[in-house]
């Protein structure tokens, strides 16, 4: 696939989601991504959250591994470890999210690979970082991203148990960060000829995503707390149900600016003179009663009836889609978010989820899904033999 990274070769020794998803982004941007797998394969291939269908890979595996080449190597065997080293010797990037002890045991640590290829970019995704007691601990995004950074204490209703996050919620922002940092290192290498060690942690990305709450406390503010839907800080920034029980998000952050528009949209101009709601501070002070009032007003019409009214009055809002309605949303169709490719094995069209960055100079067409385990071993090893002769 042509793209801005055409000509770049990435050797990926990574499993589950965060590392492979970074490889996916680079593959979609034109890089040749060779995924090294042990004989048993990446554990994410057999994910029970999204079982495989029609002899394809698990849909959970298909997205972060689409467009790559799979090579099976038992890196515990010296001869096959040497083949892995040859792959890195001809690569621009080595990408991994294995823990350091495993990398050391397999001979894929940075010192070893730097001797093999001094100018490559060594990219390491970790749960908690490279130093300290946490560095050796296993870390999924549930733990290293969601729990470590503080999400579990700021999301959900006050007084309720912590909310269980969706799978890979932190893996994908970590992958985007990793791909961006890798491209920056490749740019520097193009200028200087020098390789680099790129490191991204789930814990670090989690803290960055929560930077508003962390920065507030760091600079003397209060510890962030959960917001109550029934008594929000601002009733103009809250979720509501329309008369047909379809939910939407109201996001009028500039409360004083949007309050008159909302009153007009509701045909409640009388509220503009209500002393309790004259300022953002007063609306916050009377948040519970104003939220109840808005609930009763929004219940008077269906969501489709509110749609033109909100838009005509400049209200910032959006229906709260479920997964199915998101996939049928016409805006996603315009974005090309859920494209279809022809799968060679099943001989049928397969819908997938596209990566979000697009380049005008390189219109993208997805032409292959995730590779079967070891599908390209012979092809890639043959390429190594050709370059040795």
In terms of structural class, how would the helical and strand content be classed? alpha/beta
Provide mean pLDDT, rounded: 93
| Major sheet: arrangement of strands | 3-2-1-4-5-6
Distance between the termini: 27 Å
- Assign an overall shape: elongated
Number of helices: 17
Return the CATH class of the largest domain. Alpha Beta
Largest sheet, in brief, is:
6 strands, parallel
- The total beta strand count reads 11
Indicate the percent of residues in helices: 40-55%
Number of domains: 2
Please give the CATH architecture of the largest domain: 3-Layer(aba) Sandwich
**Poorly predicted residue ranges:** none
| CATH superfamily grouping of the largest domain | Crotonobetainyl-coa:carnitine coa-transferase, domain 1
Query: Topology as H/E string?
Result: EHEHEHEHHEHHHEHHEEHHHHEHHEEH
Radius of gyration (Å): 25 Å
Percentage of residues in DSSP E strands = 5-15%
Instruction: Quote the CATH topology of the largest domain.
Output: Rossmann fold
